[in-house]
């Protein structure tokens, strides 16, 4: 390696001054790297896809003066190497629990956009990032709990649950969400929390449905745990892979699969505790307005869980209504679930993109609104039945195992293809329009 001289570095030919300024330059670059990593970590922990995390880090780093920026985004850590043509600095930071918090996420995007224009000092930028994470408004805990219950109950209605099952699902999932928040605040393992909450919510919903005289006990139990289904991570996983980040996307898929397994463990345990053999009556075929209404309720409920602002909750409800209306219409016309889900996702994504040219655009949270609107279409109940079916195959007589294997495999493929169709519809439209992920003004 060629030795760096004071003349090459642009400093006076004084050894002491050169060394001091070189150290100061190195320390400044370190602070810039750590600040950029902090922005990327917050984006990652609040539900951003890989491309957004990388773009946010680069905007901050270049806005602070870095000349070269190399970034690696992993599931549990992010690393960055910054250079200014004289020195370089490489740092890594760990990433915590991957949650969803859209208010914080888009606040940090605004900060990154401002930093990229060179309008923020290092100290001001660090202060704003800290405030975004600690002082951004959140919905009241009890509103969060009620929204989770309402979203799950709406899911139940979409699955054909009757009125008694709607009520028991609402109450059981509210209790489950409250327990979930309490356990996560005490830093229990998220997978253990998932299994425990799934068991509690499914068991309470099943018992309640029995006493209420519901004919949809199984549906009630399945719907009560749907607030645990990782809709946003599953969408991000597919988007990351489609956008050229297969390593992170694969890691997210594995985490999604693990969550589904632990949901199944909880729901399966509840079925065993209640004696098993719980079957629903024949489900009525709801009309388009029925699906649209409860799709809107479910999407708005998840908007609260994702910490959308109140105005954006209305947009999420409209997106959910549109998604379920389009999907139901297509299915009534004879389309398979996967194709109908793809069409609905395209319709929602197009509506969000076209809103940019109206007096009421959703540009600040456009893609998030589209994802929230499509989450009611994620077949969480089918995923649980798929894994439960795999477990039950091992205890079935040989003459029945082939039939159950065929039914279970069909359910699993339907889940995979439906989630894939939703993700493909959203990503295809957003890639065609290429809207900015960060605010321009």
From TrEMBL:
InterPro entries the record matches: ThrE-like_N (IPR010619), ThrE_2 (IPR024528), ThrE_Dicarb/AminoAcid_Exp (IPR050539)
Top-rank taxon: Bacteria
Keyword Membrane among record annotations: yes
Predominant location category: membrane
Keyword annotations: Cell membrane, Membrane, Transmembrane, Transmembrane helix
Threonine/Serine exporter ThrE domain boundaries: 292-431
Topology versus the membrane: Multi-pass membrane protein
An MF annotation (GO) of this entry: transmembrane transporter activity
TM annotation in the entry: 142-159, 188-205, 253-276, 288-306, 313-329, 335-356, 368-391, 411-433
GO aspect biological process, one term: succinate transport
Name the record gives this protein: Uncharacterized membrane protein YjjP (DUF1212 family)
Originating species: Martelella mediterranea
